[in-house]
Specification:
The complex is a heterodimer of chains A (223) and B (503). Chain A has 223 residues and is of the alpha/beta class. Chain A has 6 helices and 9 strands. In chain A, the strands form 3 sheets. A 5-stranded parallel beta sheet of chain A has the order 6-5-7-8-9. A two-stranded antiparallel sheet of chain A has the order 1-3. In chain B, strands 1, 3, 4, 5 and 6 form a 5-stranded mixed beta sheet that branches. A 4-stranded antiparallel beta sheet of chain B has the order 2-14-15-16. Chain B has a 3-stranded antiparallel beta sheet with strand order 9-10-11. Chain B is globular. Classes of the chains: A alpha/beta (223), B alpha+beta (503). Chains A and B meet through α1, β5, α3 and α4 of A and α3, α4, α7 and α8 of B.
Chain lengths: 223, 503
């Protein structure tokens, strides 16, 4: 018992104060929101793999989540658009307590793992009233990862149907948004919004946990 | 014909045996000092399927490669599986990908539910249109008080999909059948062709938590085919990233084991500490999973002195923290009571199934690619092998914790003395019609990529094998006679990849 208490004491408090305090600085090499350099450049954040040799340059900005698919497409002169809050009626229902069900549909497990990270003491997601639950019947929304394989399509639709209405749908990562690197493969879809109505798009390969948290909090009007 | 890890051989130089001899030689070798490391088909233009087998002779760092031709006019051959359990999943894969039937296979059923790659009639009619498990009759046990439990594909946590079908008598599991395939994206055919940049990016997303492992294997295949030798500095940086990946995942697994044993402090602490290693990868590569680091020809990011010193300071601190929390976990009687004697795979069974990685080493399988098939940095800097004795959850946890400490030692030794030089050498064109083989010890075990070049500068066939492909059957086997409530714990102790299996 004493050993457990000692370990607990040594661990201290590791939770970040975001969003009350600014987010911790991300390292120099982190590849966040792409920078539009040329007049004619167009970058679809929902399609790219954020790879360093893509020919694009990337900023350190982790804020990338949007409410509309078209808002992910960046071009010269276009303002930065981020996810907007749910409408008032939905906010009243979900604003203080949002239960989500995650469905992995062909994901490489990177998105899934970095979503799990939100449950560690560092991000402590439950302090915002957001929780991942085991049953779709207990959930207010689903978070989908992966390019939605042929073999997972049915299970995804069944899970969606099992959710009580009103419900929200979140596409996490490039694969869920557009098929990502697997796009045009014979076994995958062209993106979640071709199958279900999507309320929040969180781009990245995978999205940094801060990108995801930022998106969720914007959806709930907390930022 | 013998090959070393990272070696290449012209397709025409691979020995061709008649099917009976091919079969006999594999079975005989695997009865002695070899293991079946890979077995797959290549479609020939002359109406044949060429089966290629790679046998690993662990003690001699040697890979034996042999092949046989099967006429597609009579697409069948005598199954190896009935005499060699290790071949079981490989033969199911061949049957599905090429509609070639291993006659006498004791458990021939679809693996990933897709049409075959040669536009012939599938062995299982209409497989591509079926929803898994597609009416497949799971192995059933009958009798009074026997009941069946089905779990998945959508699980309770934030994890990948798969279906588990248990046959139970009361609390006791009599049989577990695991049906995967839900994550099947069709990566192998997508890796083929001339767009090597896309293949490179795909290799980083075969298994996201093993991005470094798989992208290293892909890069080594291309380097082998182009005759490009990367600099010692690039080799060192790849090895550093591979160990950071191992550290993150092993530490995370120990946390998850604590959670499933009902001991939450270690789960919270290890869960957070896992992030420390991912953040080091983020500093190094700009991505928490190391995507974007490895490229054929070297790496894209360097480690300067300042970063090396910073990493060393942090890693020393993380080592102390790890020892503290690990001590908490492994000295807790309630935890040990849950770990010990649960989910045992005996050394004999592990060898028969062909377990690899930490799960294999926990059952005394003495193989670690970093040691047995050392390539790159591992030829110069060694890590001792971590073996368990008991083959249970405890052994699988202990092997992980030993490997964590040894990876940390390795990093603290390599980081301050990085070899000088460039980090990237542009590779030339690939040698046509050649087979290159690369093995990497990912954190789950032996990754193998086999690339076969065409004569247009791309890949005619690309074969990926994730360690999970060997080990899923080990999990099913370990559950026999166990209590159903021990499944989550056993599952975590293997922590296998769904997408690595499904491809």
């Amino acid at each position: 018992m004493l050993k457990i208490l000692k370990a607990r004491f040594k661990q201290g408090c590791k939770t970040i104060f975001f969003p009350k305090a600014p987010a911790p600085a991300l390292p120099e090499r982190y590849r966040g929101r792409p920078i539009i350099a040329g007049q004619n450049d167009i970058v679809d954040m929902g399609r790219i793999s954020f790879d360093p040799d893509s020919g694009f340059s990337f900023s350190n900005d982790y804020q990338m989540s949007t409410s509309g698919r078209e808002d992910l497409i960046l071009s010269s002169g276009r303002e930065k658009v981020l996810a907007s809050a749910l409408e008032d009626k939905m906010l009243k229902i979900f604003g203080r307590s949002l239960k989500l069900r995650q469905v992995s549909a062909g994901g490489c497990n990177a998105c899934e793992l970095d979503l799990n990270v939100l449950n560690t003491p560092v991000f402590d997601l439950s302090r915002f009233g957001i929780q991942f639950v085991a049953s779709p019947r207990h959930a207010d929304g689903i978070v989908v990862t992966g390019p939605i394989t042929k073999n997972m399509r049915e299970a995804l639709l069944k899970t969606y149907e099992a959710l009580p209405s009103p419900k929200i749908v979140i596409a996490l990562g490039g694969c869920a948004i557009s098929g990502g690197i697997f796009r045009d493969g014979p076994q995958v879809s062209l993106g979640l919004d071709t199958i279900l109505p999507v309320d929040l798009f969180i781009p990245g390969c995978p999205p940094h946990p801060l990108t995801t948290l930022d998106g969720l909090l914007r959806l709930l009007d907390r930022i | 014909m013998a090959l070393f890890n990272g070696g290449k051989i012209s397709l025409s130089n691979i020995p061709v045996l008649v099917v009976e001899k091919f079969r006999a030689q594999i079975i005989e070798s695997c009865g002695e000092s070899s293991r079946l490391v890979n077995l797959f088909g290549i479609l020939e233009t002359n109406g044949y399927l060429r089966l290629l087998a790679v046998l690993g002779v662990d003690e001699e760092a040697r890979l034996d490669i042999l092949s046989t031709f099967i006429s597609l006019e009579s697409p069948q051959y005598e199954s190896l599986t009935k005499d060699l359990t290790q071949a079981h999943l490989f033969e199911r894969e061949i049957a599905e990908q090429w509609a070639v039937k291993p006659v006498g296979h004791p458990w021939l059923k679809p693996l990933r539910y897709h049409s075959n790659y040669r536009q012939a009639e599938d062995i299982w009619q209409g497989i591509n249109d079926k929803i898994i498990p597609g009416g497949y009759p799971f192995y059933a046990v009958e009798g009074e008080e026997v009941h069946e439990i089905g779990v998945g594909p959508v699980h309770a946590g934030i994890i990948e999909p798969g279906h588990f079908r248990f046959q139970c008598h009361g609390e006791e599991i009599l049989h577990l059948e695991i049906q995967l395939g839900y994550q099947h994206r069709g990566i192998e055919p997508m890796m083929q062709g001339q767009d090597l940049r896309r293949s490179m990016l795909l290799s980083e997303s075969i298994v996201g938590d093993t991005s470094i492992g798989h992208s290293t294997a892909f890069s080594e295949v291309v380097e082998s085919l182009t005759g490009c030798s990367i600099t010692p500095r690039a080799q060192a940086i790849r090895a550093i990233a591979l160990e950071l990946e191992r550290l993150a995942n092993h530490v995370g697994d120990l946390g998850a084991l604590g959670m499933d044993a009902g001991f939450l402090p270690t789960s919270a602490y290890f869960g957070r500490m896992r992030g420390d290693y991912l953040n080091l990868l983020l500093i190094l590569t700009g991505n928490r999973f190391g995507k974007g680091l490895c490229r054929p020809g070297g790496v894209l990011f360097d480690i300067d002195n300042k970063m090396a010193n910073d990493f060393c300071l942090k890693l020393k601190k993380y080592r102390d923290e790890f020892k503290d929390v690990s001590d908490l976990l492994f000295t807790r009687p309630s935890v040990l009571a849950r770990f010990e004697g649960v989910g045992i795979v005996s050394p004999k069974d592990a060898k028969e199934i062909g377990l690899v990685g930490p799960a294999g080493r926990a059952s005394q399988m003495e193989c670690d690619v970093r040691i047995n098939y050392a390539s790159g940095m591992w030829q110069f800097q060694h890590v001792p092998i971590s073996l368990g004795a008991t083959g249970d959850v405890y052994a699988r946890a202990l092997v992980r914790s030993q490997e964590v400490l040894r990876s940390l030692e390795f990093l603290l030794r390599v980081l301050p003395s990085l070899p000088a030089g460039d980090i990237f050498v542009a590779p030339g064109p690939m040698k046509p019609d050649t087979v290159a083989v690369s093995m990497v010890e990912g954190w789950r075990g032996e990754i193998m990529h086999v690339g076969i070049s065409d004569n247009q500068g791309g890949f005619g066939r690309y074969k990926i094998k994730d360690p999970s492909f060997h080990n899923w059957f080990g999990l099913a086997y370990a559950m026999r006679g166990q209590e159903i409530s021990d499944f989550p714990l056993c599952n975590k102790s293997f922590n296998l990849s769904y997408c690595g299996h499904d491809l």
